[in-house]
Structures are given as C-alpha cells and as structure tokens.
Amino acid sequence: MLFRSAKRDIKVEPRLAFVLNGSAFDTAAQGTPFAQIRKGDGKLKITGLDLAPYLAYLPVGLPVQPKGAVIDADLRVDFVQTPKVALSLSGTVKVSALKLADASGADLLGVESIAATLSDVRPLEQVAKLASLELTGPKLRAVRNRAGALNLDFSASSSSPHAIKKGAASADSTGATGLNDPKSPGAKAWTLELTRFALHKGEVSWADESTRPHARMALTDVELQADAVHWPFAQTSAQFSGSLAVAGKGQVAQLTFEGQGTDGAGKVHATVADFGLVSAAPYVALYLEPRLRGAMDAELDAVWQADGVQVAVQRLALRDAVLQSDKGGDLAKLKALDVTDARIDVKNQSVRIGKIALRSPSGSVQRGEDGRWMVEQWLRSSPAAGEPAKAGKPWRVAVDDLDIGDGTVAFADDSLAKRVRLSVSSLNLRMQNLALDGKKPAPLAVSARIKSGQTEPGTLAYKGTVMWDPVLVQGSLDMRNIPAHALAPYFADQLNVELLRADASFKGQVRYAAGPAGDRVDLRGDAALDDFRANSIASGEGALRVGEELLSWKSLTVPGVQLALAPGVATRLTVREAAWTDFFARVVVYENGRLNLQDVVKDRNAPTAATPDLAASAPAPV
Fold first, then answer.
1. Nearest to 521 by CA among 533, 531, 509, 530
2. Most buried residue among 40, 79, 437, 572 by CB atoms closer than 10 A?
3. Are 333 and 363 in contact (CB under 8 A)?
4. Helix, strand, coil share (%) of the chain residues, nearest 5
5. pLDDT in tens, 114-126
C-alpha cells in the first residue's frame, strides 16, 4: 500500500516550446494526475504573437471587426480537483497595436497598449481579481450619421447572422455542464476586483452629421486613474480622478475631476477652464437661430445617492459672450456673467443661486412690423412629436442676489404707425431674494440713463419691491427728463396733437397693483413736464393747418401731486400748486363756442359724426 501510494504522488512535468510565425511560445507544467487530490500548475509565455494572419478565420458580420493586435503573455495556471474543479490564472497579459473597425469597416478604436496584471482570475467561478489594468494611447472614433445612427450602437448588428464553421456549430460542450450556457440555471454574473486602473494619452474624436452645421469635437490628453474598483459595485467606494482637453475652433478647454463613490452613492469635484461655447453651437442651433460665442469657466461638486442627485456650483463664468445673427451682427453680448454658490436638487426640482452678476451686457429689444418680438424669431420650431407632454411639477428657482452693471439696451418698435426708438445706457440693477414664481415681493433697485434721438439723456432711479404673480410694484421713484415724447406712438390714438417734445420728471412714491377687477395706481410726489412742444394734426379750410404749433412751454412744475386710480371708484387727483414758464397756446373758438384745446384728448365715447365740420365752421383765433 505504501508503494502504491508513493506511485500516485509522482509529479509529471511536461514542457512544450516552439516558434510560430516568428512568435515564441514556451509552456511548462507540473502536476500529480494520479494522486487522490489532483492538482497542478503550469506556465505559459507568449512573446510578440501577431494576430493579423489569423483574423481571416473570424466570423463575418461582426459588429466590431479586429484589424490587428500583438499579444505578449506571461501566465501561471493553477489547477486542483478536490473533487470540485478549481482553476486559477495569474501573471501578466499585454495587447499592443490593437485596431478595431466598426461594421462598415471604418476605424473605431486603436490602442497603443493594454497591460493587465492578474492576481487571481478564476474563470470557472467567474471571478476576476486584477492588480492593475493600464491603457496607453487609446483613440476612439465616434460618429453619428445623418439618420441619427451611432457607430457605437452595436445592437442593430448584434442579430446579424455570422458565418461560422460547422464543427463549431455542432460542438458538444457537455463536459462542463452549465458553464458555456449563460441561460442555464447555474450561470451567474462575473465579479471584478481591480486594484488600480490607469488610462494615458487618450483621444476621442466626435463627428455628428445629424446637426446643421455638422458638429465636430476632439477630446485629447485624456488621463484617468481609479483605485479599488469593484463590479458589481460594492460598499467600498472607488477613488477616481482624471483630466482632458477639449479642442474646439481655435480654442482648447481643460477639464479636471476627482471623486469617489459607487453606483449608489458618491461625489465628484470638477473644474472647466476656457470652454468655447462655439463647440456647442450645432446643438444650440437646434433650438436657437442666432449663433452663440464666448468662453466658459466652471467649478462644481456633484453628490449622488439612491434618492437623488445634488449639484453645488461654486462658480460658473461666461466671458465675452456674443449672440450673433446669421448676417454677422451682434444681437446681444456681455463682458462677463458670474454665477456663484448655486445649489441644484434634482429630486426636489429646486434651484437656489447665491449670486448672479452681469457686467456690461448690451443688446437690442426689437418688435417688427408684424408685431412679433425678436425673441420669437430667434426660437426654432421643434418638429411635431405626437401628443404634447403633460406639464409636470414646475421647478422652484430662487436667486439671493441679482446684480447687473453698466448695461446698454437699444429699444425699437416698428409695429406702430410711428416707430419708437429709445436708448438705455448705464443700466444698473440689484435684486435680492428673487423667486421665479414671483409670488413674494423682492427688493429691487434700478437706475439708468434714457435717451431718444439727439437730446440729452434723462435719468431714472427706482428703489422698492416688485412681484409678478400678481403684479405689484411699490417704492420710491426718481426720474428726471425722461423723453416721454418717444413713447407718444403708444397713446397716439388718444390724442389729437402731434407730441414733438416732452421731458417728464417725477420724484415720490409709486404703487401699482394688478388685480382681477382691474389695476390700482397710487402716486404721491412732485412732477414736472419740461420743454413741451405739440403741433396740431387737424386740418380744414380756415382751421389749423397740419404741423402748426399748438402748445409749448419751457417748464411746468406740479409739486404735491396725489393720484389714485382704482376699479369702480372715481379717479382722485389733487395738486398743491402748478407753475408754468414761457407758456404758449394757440386757441381757436369755433362757432359752436367750443375751444380747440378741448379736443386735444380724443373723446372715445363721442361718435365720429359729431366731430365739428372744420371747413364749415368759421374759427375765431384769439
């Protein structure tokens, strides 16, 4: 018995070494195949195995087509049967000069090298433990064609029939029951433990032919490191960091990030520097007609948990942003936009921003002859998408501090019989505790210079509160020499005169409230109307000629004005006193005893037929 037991423990040590097409193979093994516990180990070493000569044997129609690769390996294989079979692999594997093509044969992925260090890979148990995995020089080409198909979407070609050998189709693998059938009851998912992952010198080229213009973007200098990676994700958080450059049209942006987490919880800190908005122009053009240019910097943190995602934006800045028309003109631009201390809660659909600061914004506000505002013309109509989506829960947006400095606005309205032109400069606005729904009063301070034509600009300053659901404005107003004549076309249908010049001033308290029954207006303060000039617009034989001077004065001051307008109540107006300087009026008395100045304001209730026949009436000028 001792003799027979000793014979069973004999070790067998086979070895095989050869050179195939210039690639060296060297294998060695030892084992105890006759012992009660069968075990053994072996070594496999491959040097410079070029797969190119063998790729022709792969099935045709694969969604990803290998075009070349060189393999180096130095592996150790451990085997034991007690009586359960266990197989373990360890060592190193390196793939160099990997080239993959997509289903059309175009380049898909190229990698300088992929190096893996195996700690304990047990294929029969579907467990892989790797000490390291390093990718060097990967270059990925991603393309979306005009029809919207992505070359990385392999689902369309996964069901394509492959040409395979008959022997492979009829091979019987019952020797390892259940291992080769993923649908068998005993099958289970692979688990992966990766101590360290690294990617160096990566590149991604992106081309999207479904947009107009076509989108082009290149990610270069991609670096990525990760430690303690598990799949499926475990309780232990993976640590990761990385950086990349985004090459746009004449501009290179830098993105860096670092964080830790699993699929269930984690956090990441990211920074973006000098990102050119022109890179996103093809996608902005899907919704907006004008072109967008400028640069963006950002710094943010994101935290995710099972119940939602929260984003904290420390700073988001736009520099030299410009909105350009197709003809090349600037529709709007700003020197700088800074957003700081923003909090976004995706689950609760809320946004709170600490501060928004705009520096030197400028632009135009225009309405065309058809009555459409310019913004309506900017927006592209989206293609019909069936039934309109039901309105969901609205987002809650709040801004603690809104600050606009040194703004400029050119206002033009061509929808009226006489065009309206106004220029607003030195616009400064400060608003606090602003809520997008506008249901609570928010403190507001605004000042500006307002000009029309070649006259000296007037000034406006308001300090108080404002809300817009419902509309309520209340505060102190100080406006001086505002060109009221520029706004005359809006109430021209109520006047029988042509207003040439009127500089309005007011200093006091104002309150405006919109209600379902009507609007309420309260004014208390001192008013003035200076440099007033109005011409007649009525004509007829013996009457005033068109364009004849009708009213003018140098100054009209009205201190102590109190005005109250309310629905269903008679208007109340009280004035402490009034003083005119250099007053002139052309007064005409008609035969019926009516003065021409009584008709300066049109009587909406009077029928048109009741208008005096100016040709038949002999006016008596006085």
1. 509
2. 40
3. yes
4. 10, 60, 30
5. 999 999 999 999 9
